[in-house]
C-alpha cells in the first residue's frame, strides 16, 4: 500500500510540474500573425496577366540620398539609364530598370519622380541573372528550364514585346551596345560566338581548350577571358585579340576575378588567399600591375562610363575563416560593406557612405550599376535580394 501511495504522489508531482511548465512558457504565447508580403506584386503564371503600367507602390526613402527601391528579391543585374528632359524647363531623370525574381516582371523606378511602375507583365519566373544592354531596352536573362538541368538564355524587352532565345546551356554571356558575346563550354573546351543585339548569330569570336571561363568585351582590343574564380584554383586573366589569339596578362593567382574597363585598356583584378583579399589594376597591354588601397572582390565593383573611377562595396573586417569568393558565391558567408570610390588616375580611395550609419543594417552589395553621368549608384543587397540606390 505504501508503495502505491509513493507512486501516486510521484505522478501528482510530475503532473503539477508539467502544468507549471505549460503555463509558464506556452499558455500565454501570442498566436502566429500572418501579414501581407512586402515583395512587389506578381502576375499570373500565364503571359499577359495584369496591365503593364500598373503602379507597383512607392520606394522607401531612407535618407535624402539612400533609397530602398524594392524589397525584392530582384534579379542581380540592373539597367540605369538617363531619361532626356521633356522640355527646356525640366531636368533629366534617371530610370532604374530591374526584374522581380519571382515573376520575371520588369519594373521601372524614376529617381526624381519617385515612381515605381511595372513596364512588362511577361511571366518568366526563376530568373537567376540578367545583363542589360546599355540602352536599357533589353535584358539578357538566364534561368533554369523545366527539366532543371537546362539553362535557358532569353532576350527580354523592357516592355515585354518580342523576345528571343539564345542557345541553351551557355556558360557565360557578355553584352555591349552593338553585340552579344556568348560562351559555350564542354569537355573539349570553349567556343565564344558573336551575335547582334537581336540574338542573330554573326561569327565565332574565339575558341579555347579551357572549359571553365568567364568572358567580356575589351573595346577595340578584342576580349577579356579569365578562368572561373575559386580560392582553391590558380586563376589566369587573358587578353584575346580579334583574331582569337590569347595573351596572358595576369596570374596564375588564387581566386582571380577580373573586371575590365569599357575601352579594354585596364582591368580591375581581385585575388584571395587564406581569406585575405587583394586588388590591383592591370594594364592589358603590358601586364603591369598597380596595387590599390582597398581590398574587395571585383564582382562587387563597377566602372564609371568614362573609366575614370571605380565604385566598390568594400567589406568591413571580413572573416579569415572563409574561402573567397567561393563561400560568398554559395551564400555561406555574408559581407557587410561600405561603399568607396577609387580614383583610377590618382590611385586614391574616397569614402562614399556606410549603410550601417543610416540605420539600415548590414548590406552586402552585388551587381553594382551606375547611370552614364555617375549621379546614381544602384546595387542589390545579396542578403535578401532588395534593391537600393544612392545619389552621388
Structural write-up:
- The protein is mainly β and 392 residues long.
- It has a domain at 218-353: 7 Propeller (Methylamine Dehydrogenase, Chain H), CATH 2.130.10.
- It is built from two helices and 29 strands.
- The protein has helices at 2-25, 326-330, and strands spanning 60-61, 66-70, 79-83, 93-99, 106-110, 115-120, 127-132, 138-144, 151-157, 164-166, 172-175, 179-186, 189-196, 201-208, 213-217, 223-227, 234-240, 246-254, 257-260, 266-273, 276-283, 289-291, 301-303, 309-315, 337-343, 348-353, 365-370, 376-381, 387-391.
- Strands 1-2-29-28-27 form a five-stranded antiparallel β-sheet, with no helix packed on it. Strands 3-4-5-6 form a four-stranded antiparallel β-sheet, with no helix packed on it.
- Mean pLDDT is 85; it is low at 1-57.
Amino acid at each position: 500500500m505504501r508503495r502505491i501511495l509513493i507512486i501516486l504522489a510521484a505522478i501528482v508531482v510530475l503532473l503539477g510540474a508539467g502544468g507549471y511548465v505549460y503555463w509558464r512558457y506556452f499558455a500565454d504565447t501570442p498566436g502566429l500573425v500572418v501579414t501581407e508580403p512586402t515583395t512587389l506584386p506578381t502576375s499570373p503564371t500565364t503571359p499577359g496577366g495584369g496591365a503593364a503600367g500598373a503602379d507597383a507602390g512607392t520606394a522607401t526613402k531612407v535618407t535624402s540620398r539612400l533609397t530602398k527601391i524594392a524589397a525584392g528579391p530582384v534579379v542581380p543585374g540592373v539597367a540605369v539609364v538617363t531619361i532626356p528632359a521633356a522640355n527646356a524647363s525640366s531636368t533629366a531623370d534617371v530610370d532604374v530598370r530591374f526584374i522581380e525574381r519571382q515573376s520575371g516582371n520588369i519594373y521601372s523606378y524614376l529617381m526624381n519622380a519617385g515612381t515605381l511602375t511595372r513596364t512588362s507583365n511577361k511571366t518568366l519566373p526563376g530568373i537567376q541573372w540578367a545583363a542589360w544592354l546599355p540602352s536599357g531596352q533589353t535584358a539578357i536573362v538566364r534561368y533554369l528550364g523545366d527539366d532543371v538541368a537546362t539553362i535557358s538564355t532569353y532576350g527580354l524587352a523592357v516592355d515585354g514585346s518580342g523576345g528571343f532565345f539564345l542557345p541553351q546551356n551557355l556558360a557565360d554571356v557578355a553584352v555591349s551596345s552593338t553585340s552579344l558575346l556568348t560562351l559555350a563550354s564542354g569537355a573539349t573546351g570553349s567556343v565564344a560566338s558573336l551575335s547582334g543585339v537581336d540574338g542573330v548569330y554573326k561569327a565565332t569570336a574565339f575558341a579555347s581548350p579551357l572549359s571553365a571561363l568567364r568572358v567580356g568585351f575589351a573595346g577595340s582590343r578584342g576580349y577579356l577571358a579569365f578562368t572561373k574564380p575559386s580560392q582553391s584554383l590558380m586563376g589566369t586573366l587573358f587578353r584575346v585579340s580579334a583574331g582569337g589569339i590569347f595573351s596572358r596578362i595576369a596570374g596564375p593567382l588564387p581566386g582571380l576575378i577580373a573586371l575590365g574597363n569599357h575601352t579594354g585598356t585596364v582591368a580591375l583584378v581581385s585575388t584571395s588567399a587564406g581569406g585575405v583579399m587583394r586588388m590591383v589594376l592591370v594594364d592589358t597591354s603590358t601586364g603591369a600591375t598597380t596595387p590599390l588601397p582597398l581590398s574587395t572582390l571585383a564582382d562587387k565593383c563597377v566602372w564609371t562610363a568614362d573609366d575614370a573611377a571605380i565604385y566598390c562595396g568594400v567589406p568591413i573586417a571580413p572573416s579569415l575563416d572563409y574561402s573567397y569568393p567561393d563561400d560568398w558565391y554559395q551564400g555561406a558567408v555574408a559581407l557587410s560593406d561600405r561603399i568607396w570610390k577609387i580614383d583610377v588616375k590618382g590611385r586614391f580611395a574616397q569614402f562614399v557612405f556606410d549603410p550601417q550609419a543610416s540605420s539600415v543594417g548590414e548590406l552586402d552589395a552585388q551587381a553594382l550599376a551606375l547611370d552614364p553621368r555617375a549621379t546614381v549608384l544602384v546595387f542589390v543587397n545579396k542578403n535578401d535580394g532588395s534593391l537600393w540606390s544612392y545619389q552621388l
